[in-house]
Amino acid sequence: MSPVVEVEDLKVYFGRRRGGTVKSVDGVSFDIAPGETLGLAGESGSGKSTIARALLRINEPTSGRVVIGGRDVTKLRGAALKAFRRQTQMVYQDPYDSLDPRMRIGATVEEALLVRGVPASRRAAGVRELLDRVGLPASYARRYPHELSGGQRQRISIARALGVDPAVIVCDEAVSALDVSVRAQILNLLKDLQEEAGLAYLFISHDLSTMRFAADRVAVMYLGRLVEIGTRDQVFTAPRHPYTRALLAAVPVPGGRGRGPRARLAGEPPSPADPPAGCAFHPRCPLAAAECVTTRPELRRKDDGRITACHFVPDAPTGPGSEVTA
Amino acid sequence: MSALLDVEDLVVRFATPGGEHTAVRGVSFSVRAGERVGIVGESGSGKSVTAQAVLRLLGPAATVAGGAVRFDGRDVLAFDRGELRRWRGAQAAMVFQDPLSSLNPLVRIGRQVTETLREHLGLDRRAATAKAAELLASVGIPDAAARLREYPMTFSGGMRQRVAIAIAISCAPRLLIADEPTTALDVTVQAQVLDLMDGMTADLGTAVVLISHDLGVVSTFCDRVLVMYAGRVVESGTADQIVEDPRHPYTRALLASIPSLEGELPRRLPSIPGTPPQPGRAHTGCAFADRCPLAADVCRAEDPEPLELGDGRLAACHFADRSAG
Amino acid sequence: MTAPIEVPGLETAPPRRPLRQAWRSLLRDIPALISIVALILLALAALLAPVLAPHDPLRTYAEGLTDQGAPVAPGGGFPLGTDPNGRDVLSRLLYGARVSLTIGVFANGLATLVGVAVGITAGYFGGRVDTVVSRITDVVMSFPILLFCVALITVTGPSQRNVVLVIALIYWTYLARIIRGMVLSLREREFVTATRTLGVSTVRILFRHILPHLVPAIIVYATLGVASSILIESSLSFLGVGVPVPEASWGQMIDDGRKYYEAAPWLLFAPGVCLIVTVLAFNLAGDWLRDLLDPTAPERR
């Protein structure tokens, strides 16, 4: 099936007051097929959220192409932009800020139907149906957001997104603010909706165990660039890039490890305003060599189909427990 | 062995415009010298309030309505202001989730570190500054002596948490309470900060109470784990016991709802229906009964008392002695 | 149904009852309660001035002057005495309340309307509009207000209409600034972004999602603004460039009275007390509304 989202060499730069530019996203390419979930993993400052906001045209891309539903959306204006907005929706991180606190739930959801041009006579039924799809009783339409729990609010956000009948939903840390027990409910709901409607998801999360459950394929970002992209099993079972490995090793798993040092990486991600030369990861990388300081590795497909951006990724597949040695 | 910290039947109430509610409903636990105890729970479980009550940091709306807190056999709840000042910082210290709120943004890092040293150790300015630089270096801050002159804003989140830890351990306290110390940090930085806390407290023999919503963090750091739900400890035991053989249905469900990083994944995650109870909502019987797969009539009628399961394990469930279904 | 329904945990949460909440807080705040009562009485007095006034406010009564041609002291036929022209002070006060309130409400209403519209436009769209608006407000706010008003009225000629226009011309900048700041931060809230990416029209976003959040602030600042407008009007009348004579205005009555201060102190005190009470009442009521509606604090939950 042809992809519903194609991102090609996307760059999003921000000018700074004191001069200079921050290359928040610096040449990222990926695609998402209908019914597929692409996970976007990385730490703060990696540019994950900027990609989300560029896809929705909240932030303007500096260059590159974003093709959604066969159309480059980066240049759309006016009515064409409004029409495009219906194809791509987002579920936001903060369930307390993403709903208008002065609007009843019903009115918030109804607004989506209004945008889609559903006539007034059919909107009440439409709201009931949307609430039902996200697992809430119709009586919730009369409530205000402050009367709902975090999980219930995220359900409303999802209902509002579904209201315009989108092809793509971007989940930007959509479950990160939720309690663990509620998080699982929302993850299940997202999966059910995907199967029902063939939705494509861009699932952004810093939480790797959530990512493993939600994503079909995973792209790992570091400082505005992709360092590895592959199927879920490839990335989680046999990560190639030293950063992906370190990231996975740092996740504390219940009962997963005895006492002993956890950190594989020293230091913190550098500022995107002042990225290191060569491979941006080299100051923290256990494999770093002279080549890494001078030459930036491009994202390349190896013989076995694995895609990474590293000078030293071995061609032969490695097992899950294998260590990165300097 | 006598306990360093002994909390007995602690009850904390909050006065709100909507009336009074009980956030902590009879929590008991003890921490031995050098021991690491984790408290896990979701929002509203009362885990942070418990920590604040122990260190006497509750705000004006909250009152300790019952129970006892003893440190080394002394009644912490009866401390006067002078005793409290001498105790906090020197013997018992705290690290918070957001170091930006515990560090004063308008005061140089150096002064914030030396303040505690001068107050509790009676060092003069020069000795305190030397010691502060040493401390910052020991928590892994490069070029420590120079960075003493900087303000918190110029430090990254991980670096600020390192400073907060440096201040907390500066007087070699016997107890450190850390409330979600790594929640705001990236996972690779979280690992560094946990390693740091690990090393520093092991060297000093400091006991740690680590509070987190993340069972992974708590179970890999602590010797013993308490699981809290709706203001009560529903289960406690060693970290291995809790993770490998949870006895309370809430603990079981919590563990099951975290997707694992390896092995087969279910198509749907086992989830706990419903939402955690609103603080202050009165209920009879077990607070978890509404969401519990095992709930029976007895659960809705009677709040279960903690049941001794041998090996020092406790679980507050009418069905705790039955093996996991 | 695709997922388990969460336990309806807040079925019993009380619906919001703004009026009842307002009444309760008013009972706890005695100065505010007194202010509201005073404002209601004042409004009634202004409205019913033709009925309540014992005399014609503009007419010079023969018995309103002593044989020496001095004003009559309070008591007798003139409850608050007469002025040097033999007119009834009480009647003039009642009609003066009409003038003060009319000018206060209209001048400030106009300023509010313009200020809100400009503030929202500048805050939401930003860019060049914002720059221009911000510079204009900077310039207007750097003038000494009273001097500016006097100068303008001298040019346009004193009349009630001109006083209203001149006050409005100055005061809209204050509200525009406040509203602009609020809209700047509202615009960045996630629910506004979410609505925008839904494809909702800008007009609808402004009216349905931005404006409702500004209403409390507008009410509060409009209330406080009435007090300021009344003060300006009185000052202008006091300086002789406000409401033209013989129309009664408190400021002009104070001006008249100050020359006879020693002989007839009531001439100064009567309008002075009215002015102070009115301005104080508007300010206290505004403060109370601010606490009640708390426009700057985060959303109440």
Structural features, described:
The complex is a heterotrimer of chains A (326), B (325) and C (301). Chain A has 326 residues and is an alpha/beta fold. Chain A has a domain at 94-165. Chain A is built from 10 helices and 12 strands. In chain A, helix 3 packs across helix 4, helix 3 packs parallel to helix 5 (150-163) and helix 4 (120-133) packs across helix 5. Chain A is globular, with a radius of gyration of 21 Å. Mean pLDDT of chain A is 89; it is low at 316-326. With 325 residues, chain B is of the alpha/beta class. Chain B has 2 domains: 5-91 and 173-315, Rossmann fold (3-Layer(aba) Sandwich); 92-172. Chain B has helices at 47-54, 81-87, 99-102, 109-121, 125-138, 144-147, 157-169, 187-204, 215-221, 239-244, 249-256, 297-301; strands at 5-16, 19-31, 36-40, 62-71, 74-75, 92-95, 175-179, 207-212, 224-229, 232-238, 307-308, 314-315. Chain B is globular, with a radius of gyration of 21 Å. With 301 residues, chain C is mainly α. Helices cover 69% and strands 0% of the residues of chain C. In chain C, helix 4 (89-125) packs antiparallel against helix 9 (202-238) and helix 6 packs across helix 7. The longest helix of chain C is centred in the middle third of the chain and has 37 residues, at 89-125. Classes of the chains: A alpha/beta (326), B alpha/beta (325), C mainly alpha (301). Chains in contact: A-B, A-C, B-C. The interface between A and B is large, with 45 and 47 residues.
Strand content of chain A: 15-25%
Largest sheet of chain C: none
Which term fits the overall shape of chain C?
A: elongated
Fraction of residues in H or I helices of chain C: 55-70%
- Let me know the number of strands of chain C: 0
Number of helices of chain C: 11
Rg of chain C, Å, rounded: 24 Å
Distance from N terminus to C terminus of chain C (CA atoms, Å) equals 29 Å
Oligomerization status of the protein chains: heterotrimer
Q: On the 0-100 scale, what is the average pLDDT of chain C? A: 83
SSE string of chain C, helices as H and strands as E: HHHHHHHHHHH
Share of β-strand residues of chain C: under 5%
Ends of chain A: how far apart? 42 Å
**Helix-strand category of chain A:** alpha/beta
- Supply Rg of chain A: 21 Å
Task: Label the CATH architecture of chain C.
Answer: Orthogonal Bundle
What is the number of strand segments of chain A?
A: 12
- Domain module count of chain C: 1
Largest sheet of chain A: 8 strands, mixed
Keywords (chain B): ATP-binding, Cell membrane, Membrane, Nucleotide-binding, Transport
Domain ABC transporter (chain B): 5-255
Subcellular location (chain B): Cell membrane
Pfam families (chain B): ABC_tran, oligo_HPY
